[in-house]
Every structure is written in C-alpha cells, then in structure tokens.
Amino acid sequence: MFARFVVMTTQVPGDALVSLNAVNKHYGQLHVLKDINFQVRKGEVVVVIGPSGSGKSTLCRAINRLETIDDGDIAIDGKKLPEEGKELAHLRADVGMVFQSFNLFAHKTILENVTLGPIKVKGMSKAEADKEAMALLERVGVGHQAPKLPAQLSGGQQQRVAIARALAMKPKVMLFDEPTSALDPEMISEVLDVMIQLAKEGMTMIVVTHEMGFARKAADRVVFMADGQIVEDATPEQFFTNPQSSRAKDFLSKLLTH
Amino acid sequence: MDVIIESLPQYWDGFLRTLFLAVVSGIIALVVGTLLAAARVSPVAALRGFSMAYVEVVRNTPLTIAFFFAAVVLPRLGVTFQQFEVAAIIALSAYTAAFIAEAVRSGVNSVPLGQAEAARSIGMTFGQVLSLIILPQALRTVVPPLINILIALVKNSSVAGAFFVLELFGYGKQLANDHGDAVMWVLVGVAFFYLLITVPLGYVAHQVERKVAIAR
Questions:
Q1: What b/e readout covers A207-221, taking b as 16+ CB neighbours within 10 angstroms?
Q2: Closest residue, chain A, to B138 (C-alpha)
Q3: How would you classify the pairing of strands A45-49 and A204-208?
Q4: Which residues does chain A have within 8 Å of residue B123's beta carbon, measured at their own beta carbons?
Q5: Any idea what the CATH number is for the domain that residue B35 is in?
Q6: C-beta atoms of B118 and A104 within 8 A
Q7: Residue in A86, A103, A104, A170 to test binding to B, most B beta-carbons within 10 Å
Q8: Average pLDDT for consecutive 10-residue bins of chain A (258 residues)?
C-alpha cells in the first residue's frame, strides 16, 4: 500500500522532463519547426544533429523560450512554459543554457558571472554564492581565473565558465547550443570533457552539436533534424551504423568522407 | 580687462548659479533620460509609445519653447514657484532628458543581444536584465556622447538669463548694459567662466571613459 503511494507521488524516473507537443514555428514564409514532438526523460543526454538551417538551434532556444513558437506547447517538468513575465523567469532558472558565443557578462568578473544568478535570482547570500561558484569554477578547471574579466580568458575557458554559470542555478536540464562551434580545435576537447563529465554525473542534457565523437561517447539518444523536422530519433549506435532515412545517410556520408 | 576684475563678485555669483542649474538639471536629466530609454526598450507598448513621442516632440522643438512653457504656461495652469530657478531646472532637465534618452538607447543597442539572452536564461526578469546587465554596459559606451550633451546643457542654461534667472549670462547682459564701452571684455569674462565648467567636464569625461572601458 505504502509503496504504491510513494510511486504515485514521486517523480518516476523515465517521466518526460522536457516535452514538446506539436510545436510549429515560422520565420515569415520559412517553416523552421514542423510539428515537432520531442520528449527528454530525466537524466537523459540527447544530442541533436543535422545540417545547418535544419532548425536544431531554434528547437534548443524554444525550450527556454528565447524563441517564441507559433503553436503547440512546451513543458518543463510538467509545467507549461508561460508567456513573458516573472513566471517565465522562474521557469528559465530551471533550464541552464550554454551558447555558441559564450555570452559571459562582459563587465563582470568570472566569479561575478557565476554568482550573479544565485544572488539576484535565488536570493542566496554573497558568501554562500561565492563558495559554490568557486567550487564550480574549480570543477570546470578555471578556479584560478576567478578575479579576471571574460575578455582575458581563452574561448575554451570562457565556455567552461559559461557552463559553471548555468550550473550555479542548479538547473533541471542543460541546453547546449553548438557549444564548441566558435572554438579553436585545441580548445574543443577541454569543453567536451566537462560536458562528458556532466553527462556521467546524470545531468539531463540537450546538446546541439556537430561533434560526432561526443554523440558517440556521451549520448543516450541522437536526434537527427532536417528541414525543420525530426527525421530520426535513435541510439547513437543505431544512428551511426544503421541510419534509416536517406537524408541521414547523406548527412553522415558527407561527415565521414572529410 | 578692468571690468572683469571689478565685476568679479557678479561673475562669481553667476558662475555658481550656472553651475547649480547645470548640476541639478544634469542629474535629473540623466535619471529621467535613462528611464525614458528603458521605457523605449520595454516590452510594454504604451511605455515605448510614450517614450518615443516625448523624445520626438522635445528633441525637435527649441529650448526657448521649453523655457516658455515652464516659466509662463505652467504658472498659468496653477503650478507656481517661488523662484524662476525652478522653472529653469524643469525646462533644462525636460529638454536634456530627451537627448540623454536617445544616447542611452543607442548604447543599449550596442550591447550584444547575447548578453540579454544569457541573463534571461539564468532566470532574470526584464528589470534585472536591464539594470544589472544591459545598462551598466550601455552607459559605459555612451560616456562621450553623454558628456557632449552635458556640455551642451551647461551652455543651454544661458537661456535662463532671458527668463529672469541671474546666472552667468544674465549677469553678462546686465554688465554689458552698465559698461557699454567694454562689452567685449564683459563677454570674454562670461566665456571664461563657462570654460571653467565645460573644459574640466571634458577632461573628467576622458578619464571616466578610460576607466570604465570594457574589453570584449
């Protein structure tokens, strides 16, 4: 009796943490998201790949409503994304976002970049926020850079700080929008290592990337998008060795021959 | 030359009043102008509309009209003041705020969109994004145009001389009447005291600009 009660009221692992139902979006004439149905369970790492212009970045940005959608609905942990306002801000705090261009606050130090959210949004004390931020910065390997300004760091370091900034909010899910696309080749691995570590620790992640190595290593699922649609949704093993659609086969053949 | 030495007390009194008008109006205009710029980029359409209309009307009419409204029309509508300085401050701040709003808005537009997106994505509200992330960066980039506007404000305060306020220019007119043979020197004196405010202002601007510059 008691056991059943517990199962019914707690979050069952396997429930959809992020859920998109019949989502559509247009940019003028261009239909960038076509009837997208997409679920991510708690603890899952989903890599979204596809050719440029396929809508994968738009999909990622729609999940914390940096892009509005025309119809359909998006829910985070069972709560539908509200319109602009305080409520949306609250929900966004649960969704960490890492951008292609890092977007660290240029006028704040590395430490302040990480503490600003916890202090201003969560009302944490500065001492506590500083302590947690330093631990996060150490974890991503940039602890000694804390007093510097973003422009004094390399791209790879900035992106790791951006990950720490998002983690400081203790998000339920992390979105990565091409996190390594603006980086020099030798800096890509330092960022990917942090992401792989995060995946191992059980963070729910949605990663838009061109890094197939990361997809193979860390993803539970690979979602392939083309022309605004989800064309394939499979395990990395299935997707890379036995893609079903001709669109995906074409995409993979181009990757592998270069 | 002698007329300047002779009239130093008047010059000094006028100088202090000009400085007072400029400082008080400058502070009010900075605050009001920044609020107008914030309204201009807010998600509320009515605020955007109000800010735009205000800036368009005030920026495109002569300062004398603003003074006329503050000194003549407002009292007729029942808003009376003991001193004409108050009218001068109202007119100068209202007028200057429109220019400051435009400068700050251009600064807001110069801050990369990604800064606001990053701030929103950690859960900040519109007000927090604006006050903690956008405006601090925007204001740094607009220090040079803001100082231009403030220098213009110092000089614009001379219009108050025509509306019964004895600031530098008001004294200048008076002295020129009293010393018809030395009008040129009287005006050289007036110019000197204006420079005493505006030149240091330019210097301060340069220092501030260097200090707050942010690397990207």
A1: bbbebbebbeebbbb
A2: A107
A3: parallel
A4: 89-90, 92-94, 117, 121, 169
A5: 1.10.3720.10
A6: yes
A7: A103
A8: 41 71 91 92 94 90 91 90 82 93 95 96 95 95 94 94 96 95 90 94 94 91 93 93 91 75
Residue count (chain B): 216
The pair of structure tokens assigned to B50 is 């109000």
A183 neighbors A176 (Cβ within 8 angstroms)? no
**Closest partner CB to A103 (pick from B114, B124, B215):** B114
What are the chain A neighbours of B121 within 8 Å (beta carbons)?
Answer: 64, 66, 92, 95-97, 166
The predicted model gives B72-92 an average pLDDT of 87
Q: Least CB-CB distance to B117: which of A66, A104, A166?
A: A66
Taking an 8 Å cut-off on Cβ atoms, the answer to whether B140 and A165 are in contact is: no
Overall number of domains in chain B: 1
* Pairwise CB contact (< 8 Å): B122 & A116: yes
B211 Cβ under 8 Å from any chain A Cβ? no
Which residues, 6 or more positions from A167, have their beta carbon under 8 angstroms from its beta carbon?
A96, A136, A174, A198
- Show the domain range for B196: 2-215
Q: What is the ipTM of this complex?
A: 0.87
* CA A208 to mean position of chain CA atoms: 7
Q: Is the dihedral of CA B67, B68, B72, B78 positive or negative?
A: negative
Q: Are A33 and A22 in contact (CB under 8 A)?
A: no
Amino acid at A27: Y
Q: How confident is the model over B22-52, as pLDDT tens digits?
A: 999 999 999 999 999 999 998 899 999 999 9
Exposure on the CB side of residue B148, measured as CA atoms within 13 A:
9
Count Cα neighbours of A212 within 13 Å in the Cβ-side half-sphere.
Answer: 14
DSSP E strands in chain A: the ranges are 16-27, 30-41, 45-49, 71-76, 79-80, 95-98, 173-177, 204-208, 221-226, 229-234
State the residue for tokens 């808003």: B79
* pTM of the predicted structure, to 2 decimals: 0.83
Residues 55-94 of B with CB under 8 A from A: none
Amino acid at A211: E
CA count, 13 A, side-chain hemisphere, A217: 15
